[in-house]
Amino acid sequence: MLKLENLTKRYNTGDLALQGIDLSIPNGQVLALIGPSGAGKSTLIRCINRLVEPTNGSAILNEVNLTKLSSRALRKSRRKMGMIFQEYALVERLTVMENVLSGRLGYVGFWKSFLRRFPKKDVNEAFRLLDRVGLLEMADKRADELSGGQRQRVGICRALIQDPDLLLVDEPTASLDPKTSRQIMRLINELCQERGLTAIIN
User: Taking CA 49 as the corner, what is the angle to CA 68 and CA 87, rounded to the nearest 5 degrees?
Assistant: First the structure.
């Protein structure tokens, strides 16, 4: 379960992005955040995994208070929080497969990842995920050769290969055309249902 208690974010400028957010999301539930631009939806998502540091309050995932963790403990906890970004956050010069496997970095360590020494089970899972999202034939293509929709599918695979307890999805269709946007949102919802994932989608 994810619990937010009095989560607040005030920037150094004095602007208040979040104020006293209380929220409980049971395991396996998908929650959509709806609101106008600038309402703090992205800030809320990023406060949970502390890409943005909250000013006050707590974010508790499966009884672990994420807001109280040391940097080292936070890195370990982030392994169980997959994130799908608006701008994909892929390494353009790497292949699709390499980008997907980068989601295992927290498990195999930097050097094994750098040297592409991933366990066979991770490689097999990457192939399985790429097949599920319709990109198996693109595995050896560079990320910069892909369309926006294809890049977002790679980002989805990278998040899922982490085997997350929580999936954080920040404006996954903002850079996509309407048809591709619908396809991506349908895919994310299907994958969450298949895996019983807890997810917050902005």
Answer: 160
Q: What is the pLDDT of residues 133-183, one digit of tens each?
A: 999 999 999 999 999 999 999 999 999 999 999 999 998 888 788 988 899
Q: Does residue 153 contact residue 135 with C-beta atoms inside 8 Å?
A: yes
Domain count along the chain: 1
Domain that holds residue 196: 2-201
Tell me the range of 85-94, 107-116, 137-146 where mean pLDDT is highest.
137-146
Write b or e for each residue in 61-99: b if 16 or more Cβ atoms lie within 10 A of its Cβ, otherwise e: beeeebbeeeeeeeeebbbebbbbbbebebeeebbbbbb
Q: What is the pLDDT at residue 154?
A: 95
Phi, psi dihedrals of residue 141, rounded to the nearest 5°: -80, 150
Rounded to 5 degrees, what angle do the CA atoms 143, 144, 148 make?
A: 85
User: What does residue 10 show for φ and ψ, rounded to 5 degrees?
Assistant: -120, 125
Residue 60, domain CATH: 3.40.50.300
Rg (CA), the chain: 17
d(CA 103, CA 164): 10
Closest CA to 158 of 125, 201, 110: 125
Q: For the whole model, what pTM was predicted?
A: 0.89
Q: What are 166's two structure tokens?
A: 């929580």
Could you give phi then psi for residue 48, rounded to 5 degrees?
Answer: -65, -45
